[in-house]
Design brief:
The chain is 98% helix and 0% strand. It has 1 helix and no strands. It has one helix spanning 2-123. The radius of gyration is 53 Å and the shape is rod-shaped.
Length: 125
């Protein structure tokens, strides 16, 4: 009887820590499951955050494209106007130069004729 009592006490003593260990293991498993769900939630939040950041960067890039076009237009249009004006001015100045030189030649010939007429007038009044 003593042996049965001794074995039953021994089994009870060894069973109590085993039961406590199984409870701890169950708690650890629950903690791991909570951590897994938290990790899944965090990964989805990070994915959503990345998508939002990418969308905003795309919007910013479109804004920069518009601004670049506006800057190019603000610089390009006045430069084009200046280039056209300078070209026209050069063409007109060149025509004036040709006219001026032709008029200068004509003035010289007229001066020469006037001088010859003056000399003829002086010689034969």
């Amino acid at each position: 009887m003593k042996t049965i009592l001794l074995f039953s006490i021994l089994f009870c003593v060894t069973a109590i820590p085993l039961r406590a260990q199984t409870q701890e293991i169950a708690e650890i498993k629950d903690d791991i499951e909570r951590i897994k769900t938290d990790l899944a939630v965090l990964t989805t939040e990070v994915k959503n955050l990345k998508e939002n950041v990418n969308k905003r960067f795309d919007g910013i890039e479109k804004g920069f494209d518009r601004l670049n076009n506006i800057i190019i237009a603000c610089i390009g249009i006045p430069l084009a106007i200046l280039a056209i004006g300078a070209t026209l001015w050069g063409i007109l100045a060149n025509k004036r130069g040709v006219r001026d030189s032709a008029q200068q030649k004509e003035i010289e010939t007229l001066k020469a004729e006037i001088e010859t007429l003056k000399q003829r007038h002086i010689v034969s009044p």
